UniProtKB/TrEMBL annotation:
InterPro entries documented for this protein: PPM-type-like_dom_sf, PPM-type_phosphatase-like_dom
SUPFAM superfamilies, alphabetized: PP2C-like (SSF81606)
Name of the protein this chain belongs to: PPM-type phosphatase domain-containing protein
Pfam families in alphabetical order: PP2C_2
Organism of this sequence: Brevibacterium ravenspurgense
Residue ranges constituting the PPM-type phosphatase domain according to the UniProt record: 12-125
């Protein structure tokens, strides 16, 4: 078994955080509040990092996954000094019998199994970006500029952010929402350990290398070295600079962070 982690950011403080132990890997992707100040952006980065530290302190395992994540969330909440910060969180943990994945938010997990690739995502986020981008494309077909087409969905995107962690919206880890309550909204999948060859956990920034930028596929990510990942990172950033209006590679936002956690079992 070989475990590997990698992360990069365009920000002073990386709001992605990645961690690993002998039986787990985890990726957290902090989400700065709308209109957030630099202090809130810094606090968001600290919050996602604290989530991962909490998991590492307790060495989360499959048979204690729920408690392990709850304790990590409570640890991060105690560490947080600024209100209103949030983060996605995906944890993959295993023993001799099972690989268990818990995810909330928009990270993607790719499993190489004995029968091919399996994708694990939070179903509450599945298809959201495609629906918004469909509206953008429809506006362009009816004569709108790309700038105006993206602007036309901004209000709904902001409303969706405001509705997080309510009955009207999606859920995410927060500095203030009870850890046990948020655990009820994690998507948890269990797969027999014997059929897993590799596990990849990708933040949304790294997953964008696959779609929309089409730089890599899952097999590339299994085989990639840190130097390879650095190259993908630079290529994706160059591509988005050359596509400033987001017309060639439609996307709701530009890349800022990218994180990969990888476990190869055989």
């Amino acid at each position: 078994m070989r475990t590997f982690t990698w992360t990069r950011s365009l920000k002073d403080n990386n709001q992605d955080a990645v961690g690993s132990g002998s039986r787990f890997v985890a990726v957290a992707d902090g989400a700065t509040p709308l209109g957030g100040s630099k202090a809130k952006a810094d606090a968001t980065a600290a919050f996602s990092s604290a989530l991962v530290r909490g998991l590492e302190r307790n060495e989360v395992r499959p048979d204690g996954l729920r408690n392990g994540i709850s304790e990590a969330v409570e640890y991060a909440q105690r560490d947080c000094e600024v209100a209103g910060v949030t983060s996605t969180l995906t944890v993959a943990t295993w023993d001799e019998n099972v690989l268990r994945i818990a995810t909330i938010g928009d990270c993607t997990t790719l499993l190489l199994t004995s029968t091919g690739w399996q994708v694990v995502i939070d179903p509450n986020y599945e298809g959201n970006e495609e629906r918004y981008l469909g509206r953008v494309a429809n506006s362009v077909r009816h004569g709108a500029s790309w700038k105006d087409a993206y602007a036309s969905i901004n209000a709904d995107l902001k409303q969706g952010r405001k509705a997080r962690n309510t009955d009207r919206g999606t859920w995410i880890v927060s500095d203030s929402v009870d850890a046990n309550k948020v655990m009820d909204h994690f998507h948890i999948v269990s797969v027999p350990r014997a059929c897993i060859k590799a596990c990849l956990v990708l933040s949304d920034g790294a997953n964008a290398w696959r779609d929309p930028f089409q730089l890599v596929d899952a097999g590339d990510l299994v085989a990639s070295s840190a130097i390879d990942l650095d190259s993908y990172w630079e290529q994706a950033n160059q591509m988005q600079r050359e596509d400033a209006d987001r017309s060639r590679f439609p996307r709701l936002s530009n890349l800022d962070d990218a994180t990969v956690a990888r476990v190869i079992y055989s």
